[in-house]
Amino acid sequence: MKIYAIGGYSEVGKNMTLVELGEDAIIFDCGLYLPPIVELENKRGGYEEYELRAIDALPNDLSFKKLWNKVKAILVGHAHLDHVGAIPYVGYHYKEASVVGTPFTIEVLKSLLKDNPNIKFKNRLVSVMPNSSYIVKGKKEYKVEFINITHSTLQTALMALHTDEGIVLYANDFKFDNTPVLGKKPNYKRLKEIAKEGVKALIIESLYADREAKTPSEKIARGLLEDVLLTTINENSCIVVTTFSSHIARLKSIVDCGKLLGRKIVFLGRSLHRYVSAAAKLQLAPFIKDIKLLSFRKQLEKQLRKISKKRERYMIVCTGHQGEPGSVLERLAYNRLPFKFKPKDHVVFSSSVIPNPANIANRKQLEKKLKEKGVRIFTDVHVSGHCSREDLRDMIEMVKPEHIIPAHGDLQKLTALAELASELGYKLGKNLHLLQDGQFLSLG
Ligand SMILES: [Zn+2]
Question: Is 402 helix (H, G, I), strand (E, B) or coil?
Answer without folding.
Answer: coil
